[in-house]
Structures are given as structure tokens and as C-alpha cells.
Prior knowledge:
Largest sheet: none
Mean pLDDT: 84
Low-confidence stretches: 301-310
Strand content: under 5%
Helix content: over 70%
Shape: globular
Order of helices and strands: HHHHHHHHHHHHHH
Number of strands: 0
Structural class: mainly alpha
Number of domains: 1
Radius of gyration: 25 Å
Amino acid sequence: MAAAAVTMVLWASAFVSIRSAAPHFSPGALALGRLLVGVAVLAAIMGLRREGLPPRGAWPGIVISGLLWFGLYMVALNWGEEEVDAGTAALLIGIGPILIALLSGYLLKEGFPSRLLAGMAVSFAGAAVVGFATADSGDESSVVGVLLCLVAALGFAGGVVSQKYALKHATPLQATTFGCAVATVATLPFSYQLVNEVADAPAQATLNMIYLGAFPTALAFTTWAYALSKLSAGSLSSTTYAVPALAIGISWIFLGEVPTLLAFLGGLLCLAGVAVSRSKPRSRAAVPSAPAAGTPTDADAAPAPATGQR
């Protein structure tokens, strides 16, 4: 689906922007700045489309997804990436789609399709290869960093499942806008840090933060919500394994970072797993059953040729 593809490309591009902005912003300030831009863009779109408040039944899912995904996930991931190398972070975050498949299979009654689970296993193996290829052997990942990345993965999983509940009542734009607003309120304690750091940050870092809010947050989360309203949570979450492969390609094009052969192969493995999880079993052609005993056949039903014709 086009919406899912747009989401994956924009989320992959976020890794390049975060790399540029993160040295100049603390984790909480970067998350708040990104959310402020995102909610401003989304509010403008809401005004143009004249969409009002979500129905009451959508609010529990919106609030939980806003706190867990838009809020906790962003802060924990930003913080965790300061404590662990990018490869380790990617590997740990790769647990998120597996958790989503398990939670949605049980809580949302989506079941556990064999192709989905097999594809996720292949993609997770690919993410592990990418993580190993990009790991910094000179640094030791801290326990705190590992735990923060695991918290981010849990926030991602819980947020997606909660948003799926919200989308039963709200439109994708409503679920995204108000989820982003909830997270913005939750991260307001980082306002003082954000104001001070924006004043000292170079223009490029601030522009990258604005880009993160406008595109990987406002646009990509909306297209994600639209895709989530059409697909099962487990099936859609499997497509996020394409992000590491796309991020490698974007870094190669825009940063000149040529991937190692191992990272390239790991990216291909991620994409192969996504293809497996999104594939459908072949439908077997129906084999005509033999007529039951005593059932007249076409030959029996055909009229016998007339005799003694003139």
C-alpha cells in the first residue's frame, strides 16, 4: 500500500535527520521540538479539512498511544541512542514489530498467520545482521541504553495496538493529531531545555528538527494511521523492517556512507522478510469431485439419436 510505503521512507529519512540534530539537543528537548512542529502542521491540516474532535470512544486509545508511542517511544529512543551504538539500537527496536504481532494476535483477535511470523523471523534476522554490521566495536553498550531501547520497543508496540482501538472510532487524522497533542503536553517539562538549546544550536540542526516534526511525524504518522485503519496491526508492523534497509540507502545517497557488504545483505534480508510476511498463500484450484453413484451424467442426459429417420 502506498501509504505504508510513504511512512517507511519518511521514517528511514528520520535517522539521517536525528543524527544531525541529536548532538545539539537533549533527548527530551528534541522530542518536544519535533512534537511541537508536528502538532502545528497537523492542526493546520485539521482546520483545512474541518475535522472536529474525535468521538468519545476513541479517546482512551488516543491518550494511551500518545503517551506510549509519540511520547515515551521518542524520548526513550533518543536517550537510548546516546548510550548504545546505532546497530544495537536498531536490533533492540526490531523487537517492537514482534511484540505488536503477539499483542494484536491476542488482544485484537488477529490470530497468528504462519507467513507473518515466518516473515518477521527472516526480517529480525536481517535486522540482527544490520545491527552487527553497524555496531561500534570500540564502545560498550551500557545497560541503561539497552533498557531504554527496550522501553522504546515496548512503547512502540503498546502505542500501535492502542491506536488500532482508537481507529475504530476516529479518523486517521484525528488519531494522529490528538495523539501528537497528548504527547506534546506530556513532554512540556522539557520546554526549558528546548528554549536554551535552540538558542545555541546551529541552523542546520534546528532545520532538521523542523523536518522531523513536519514529515516523519506529521505526515508519516498520518499515513501510518491510514494504513493501520485498513490493515491488521501485525501485518502492517512487519513492513517497518524495511526501515533499516531504506535508512542504509538514504545514508548512502545523502551522506556518502557506503554500506558494508554485511549491512547490505542484512538490508536485503529485511526486505525479503517483509515480502514473505505480506505474501498470500496460493489458492488451490478446486478439483471436480466424481459424480455420486446413480447421478445422471451429461451423457446420460443427452437425448438418444432418433431411429428410422426419413
